[in-house]
Design goal:
By secondary structure, this protein is an alpha+beta fold. The chain has helices at 19-29, 64-74, 95-103, and strands at residues 9-13, 33-43, 46-57. Strands 1-3-2 form a 3-stranded antiparallel beta sheet.
Amino acid sequence: MQANVELPKAFSVRDEHEFYPIQHLMARLNPKLMVTQIATGMHVSGGETVFWGLVFLEGDSPDQTQVESALQAAGFDMARSRLTQAAFMWSDRSVVDDREKMEDGGQPCCVNSAKPKPKRPTVG
């Protein structure tokens, strides 16, 4: 079965530890799909603070407008939450440059506002 999905797509999870199973599932569905945590905030319908993730194709990092559109479509409350961890998605430096820096013991360009780059789970 095939399906056409417009990427990027955002989603929310209640527990930060739920990202690894989602990354693993996406990698099994399509090894070119990347899943990363990009924000922490509230849903427009209220409730508790949740973790927000983004699914996109490897090598096709979305820009700020695409990330914000995906988050709004998923219900991210832009009025009460801020995009603090998404900044690396549209930074001036490439993901490859930041990964090389981190491997050399340095820090990525947005270390104060972003988590380390998403890691590809091992599929076996």
